[in-house]
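ok trying this again, last paste got cut off
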Amino acid sequence: MKKFLFDLFPLILFFIAFRVFDIYTATAVAMGAAVLQIAWLKLRQHAIEGTHWINLGVIVVFGSATLFFQNDAFIKWKPTVLYWLFAAVLVGSQLFFNRNLMQKIMGGQLILPGHVWTKLNYSWALFFVLSGAINLFVAFSGYFSDSQWVSFKVFGSLVLIVIFIIIQSLWLGKYMKDQSEEQD
């Protein structure tokens, strides 16, 4: 739980700064929080995950463009770009390097057949593609205010992830049950 909250640190501060100030202050705060996050991990001599580096790079690029051009469209694109990068990495590592990143991440907790790992990897990639598209809809369709987009970015995205994880758990439960029956 502590790691989960640590990973959400820049997002939480973005939300608070937006509510207190505006999107530009919130963007600067999120950028600073992402830098502090990496600095903290380095100072504590903890391993820095690839996702932290990717998030830092994307927030610095899109946050800087937001602040420089005083245009919030850039920061609204940030979640979509991040999600689509994650999807591309998942699919690219599978297709070009025959490496299943979901198996690498979760292999210590689950024992699954190879074809199930492949489906899991692609289903997460699809989830990230769809999440990015939903973000674009909420950010740019004209149906939602900036405040609603920020709330969606913070809470809606988390709800989508939790729902997706529950669906994945139910689906994987079938394979876990089959394994436990094979061991009996």
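PB: full thing came through this time. The mean pLDDT is 90.
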